Amino acid sequence: MTDFLNGIHYNSWILPALLIIPLVGALLVWAQGGAHRDDADANAEPARHIAVWTLIIEFVVSCGLWWSFVPGVAGWQAGVDYAWIPSWGARFSLGVDGISLMLVLLTTLTMPLAVLGGWTAVKTRVHAYLAFLLILTSGMLGVFLARDLLLFYVMWEVMLIPMYFIIGIWGGQRRVYASLKFFIYTMVGSLLMLVAIIYLGIHNRDALTGIPNFSYDAMLASGALTPVTALWLFGAFFLAFAIKVPVFPFHTWLPDAHTEAPTAGSVILAGIMLKMGTFGFLRFALPLFPGSAMNPTVRAIILTLAVIGIIYGALVAMVQPDFKKLVAYSSVSHLGFVMLGIFALTVQSVQGAMLVMINHGISTGALFLLIGMMYERRHTRMLADYGGIARVVPMFAAALTLVSFSSIGLPGLNGFVGEFLVLLGAFRTYPIFAAIATTGVIFAACYLLWAIQRILFGKLDKPQNEHMPDLNWREIGLLVPLFACIIWLGVYPAPVLRRMEASAEKVVRTVQTNAALSESQTAALPGGE
Amino acid sequence: MALSSSHPLAGTIAAWMWLLPVLPLLGFFINGALSILGSSHVGPSDPDMGHDDHDASPAASDQASHSHGGDSHAQAVPRFRALTAIIGPGVLILSFLLAASIFLAMRGVDMSAPFIQRYWSWMPVGDLRIDMAFQLDQLSMVMVLIITGVGALIHIFSVGYMSDDPGFARFFAYLNLFVFFMLMLVLGANYPILFVGWEGVGLCSYLLIGFWFTDNANASAGLKAFIVNRIGDVGVLIAMFMIFANLGTLDFTGVAAGAAGLPFGGALVTTICLFLFLGCTGKSAQLPLYVWLPDAMAGPTPVSALIHAATMVTAGVYLIVRSSFLFAMSPIASITVAVVGAVTALFAATIAMKQWDIKKVLAYSTISQLGYMFVGVGVGAYTAGIFHLATHAFFKALLFLGAGSVIHVMHAAYHHSGSHDDAQDMRNMGGMRKAMPITWIVMWIATLAISGIPPFAGFFSKDSILGSVYEHAGDSVLTNATWLGMSGHTVLLAVYVIGLAGAFLTAIYMTRLMLYTFHGPSRATADEQRHMHEAPWLMTGPLVVLGALSLAGGWLNLPSIMSFLGPVGGLDHWLEPVVGAATRTVTNGVALEASHSTEAALIGAAIVIAVLGIAVAVLALKPASLVPKAQSPAEHGFEKVLANKYYVDEAYDDAIVRPVYGLSKNVFWRGLDAGIIDNLFVNGSAALARGLGWIGARIQTGSTGVYAWAIVVGAIVVLSAFSFR
To answer: What is the C-alpha separation between A375 and A385, in angstroms, rounded?
Structure first.
């Protein structure tokens, strides 16, 4: 496989290609719609096929990364670097490393499934819907792949706009409120981040020409921010990422957005877009501002918020009457584990956090797909409207049970490995936080198993549920890859861990050394903490 | 596949030990596939449009499952029944035969070190190395033989018991999966693999308790079991984190080596042990986490026999014996285990006295007997704990299967008469010995065994535990330890007395169960009695085998005082390489050997207590005067408290479940989330922005005069601000 990939110079074109393929697909979808694309359901079927095949090609092409990626190398791989806006010093430079590799693959896997999941649910303005999904794909991949902070920011916004429309146009009852809330929440954070990025770019400007420099690697190498400046800049990044994660108490956009979005939107939001925040912490906030992030006070506050998120998210999820909202709140809990792992900063906890990001994408993505299937059949998301349907839809029941156990971290399935590593690693640096967080596994069992009991078990007492059709071939087909991942990552995660290890170790090492360095500088400064 | 090729077992049949759990796993996949194939068809391509073309509801939904108390039986012939009936028990029998061959291979070689096989690297991260690896030693061998042996018998019994159930294939799929996880639990070579099995059996327990899920109470019982177990699992997780943080490994061999270097009786090892024991109280249903096990009786009776009596619930005992190198280092944790075990043994026995549901009596009895096992492993008598685990697996599986047989017959009779009475309530039974002589005899064997009458199996194992308590109270590292301000000597003597008291009650409640079920006049109608007859051989066969084991199980480990019966201390010698060192740590390096006169006195006391218990029950209870459940008067006073299980469930509900739910719903969700964060801050700031915009819009009047005034005022403010600096 590696020889073949070298033969076709895979590494030299793959990353730009991953950004371009979905855009081409979007153009094709739009063109196919022709003049009637706004109201034409009649020719929506070909558009759906164009979209899904584009995304399948994208996935197949991206799979080469799994083999071309060299484990044990901490730096960028398959990198490309072109001039983009020379006068601003912005470059179109991409690269993949152990932190982003699995997230890229998760994205390319999730996207075709998300489109398949909403195959029959979206019936209006199908062309626009599909085009937005395809543009979104490029945006999200761009965020994971960018090696230039201005490019990163542009991609961050590119991904925001299609999602705003997807929620606002094809969402549920309260879609306008939810989409505005999502947009404004995210914008507040990201505008501050833009200011910080511009500051950093100018700070790193070329001494001779005065042209700013937004290159990630250059910023990493330069350092030399005063502790106070670093803390302000860290604060700006923190707000942007904390909202995206979301960290308690910045999470209230999430239940609305996830609940009102159409199935594909929820799957993408939960599966991929929530990881942008934690990815941002790992990629930018920690390595760029190690002194601020590792400041004992800052760290204790963030860890406290993470642990609150784990417990609070689970408890609030437990009392939700709406299944989709329940799963949305459960994301707050899961992402709390990721934050705990990142800020505990041990090799195990950081790799565990990276794995939880992937696992949450798979499990919660699958949960939202299953909720979509329920909703298409019964047009309700309320738990109270179900009950006893395991008798009518045994395959659906088996699927929901498997995914639920994956989500609550049953050992042998994917969810466990990530959470276990996070807690095991975090216990080495913050035993009390880790011990409290461990109790989260109890509440996870409470909210999800109680929910599936109310859906699947008990008397089949609602006549509308008596003739629910079981899963069809399309639905089985789109769930099977996720099930395969659930079992594979639970039983044999070592290949994934190997690919993450070098990059995770590098983050841990550099942040620890630089934090110690800046601490000694701070100590020398009068008035420093 | 990396083999430890230097071990004498390498290259023998033991190298196939991976097949032990893989066989039941295969059974799970096949039966699971049959279950799905047999009960569903794929839906239409557009689920929204499909309501009308969907021809028929699946087979299962046609079943009017009528329920008598707990077990329900719907009448239908499930598809692929014969195939499942062969594969389900078949994989277990093959697994047992393989286990027996491995056992024979082990007997011939030097087994001073465990035989470890590494299959693949599970979690390699930094300095953490967790392998998917199995460890075969004398302890895991004993467990494997019990699990596959008793498991095979229960699988065979289930073919008869579940024959009419529409979920036949699903039942065997779950049961096979359970055996797979149980074998992972006892074969795992490190704590995380053990934990895979530990939670996996919890999953199967959940699925099987809620097997008849159309009744919401069953599903709730499954949920309760899983959640209560998870509380314990948090303890196991934290213990693992502590072990790794301090010893840098989670392999049993590595931890055993590292534990020797920890300070004896130190806070660290005590904390680790107490967290591990928290897990045991969940999985093995000890105080305060025992509450799920009585509810777990909602599952089909073979499940109660296999999972909630013979195997899964003993996992906590196994975990302590497996971690004996840690527990032996901590007298405080060890005494805690013994005290919790003893108190649970007595507490559960008192509740069992007043239960009417035949399965509930056995459930509390199981909790009580597990308490004895913890008493054994708590005082450092690890072999005695495993010995009682083994004999209990025989006689309690037998009691449950026998009870299942009775319930089966009651159901069949009620089915004919159309009665909706409770088929599990002993007040509705009576005189069953006439209809079911084989069941009657084997259940008496099991009753005598659990009561501690020689030469039945339970006598030897219970005596071995109580004897060790008495001996270790006198001279061991526990003797001089301080536990909550009391000397270990005093505490252990109290444990011994509590143990004897529990044994007395055990004899009473078991005799009560037998008298009310099998003796006296039948309280069923004449019509119902006509339809009562002995279960088919598929069900009685396993009962007879278990009866023989309950009779002869004591010969596994005869006490030295009874050398006239045969070779003594078989299990002691067999387990020596695993627990010998830990036992010697507890006993100060000497093999404790009570004088024969003391030992004889102890045995005598135990026999007297047991006989007395049976005698009291026979004399005091009048099965003839019992009336069916429907006409029974309500209990009063302490009887009512016992019948209501000391109201512990209600107390937990009021003290924990409701407050947490209310807090989450009203304070966190409605109050903090929707109220403060969303309404006050998020929507509040939006309202503020709207308000400012409104003011801004008002100001833009278009009147030049107003603008001019604003400029003048603004200029004055700015200028004065600068001048005052």
So the answer is: 11
